[in-house]
Design a protein that fits this description.
The protein is of the alpha/beta class and about 100 residues long. It contains 3 helices and 3 strands; from the N terminus they run βααβαβ.
Length: about 100
């Protein structure tokens, strides 16, 4: 069985703008799982709202994606593929990160 880790922010988590979380067949990792089929593939959702690529957020702690990635890689191994979907939260004004 191929194991795919989807690691990301609230988009990976499936946050619904109206509140709560989209159901597993509406979240993009769930859609991926549905398209691949359950036989032969296991898609693992590892999303967290507010997660950044490399930034420590003083308002929302424990959201540094780089710091948490090794833990996810180890806890979900063995893995055949890792999809990383981060960057949106790097645009938070209070992080003072440039587009560059």
């Amino acid at each position: 069985m191929k194991r795919i880790l989807c690691y990301g922010d609230s988009n990976t988590y499936g946050s619904n703008p109206d509140g709560g979380r989209w159901d597993e067949h509406t979240r993009w990792p769930g859609l991926l799982s549905d398209k691949l089929g359950f036989e032969g593939y296991r898609v693992i959702e590892e999303g967290m709202g507010g997660r950044t690529t490399i930034w420590d957020d003083p308002i929302e702690p424990n959201r540094n994606g780089l710091a948490a990635l090794p833990i996810s890689l180890q806890s979900h191994r063995p893995l055949d593929l890792v999809v990383i979907a981060l960057g949106t939260n790097d645009c938070k004004t209070h992080l003072n990160a440039s587009p560059k």
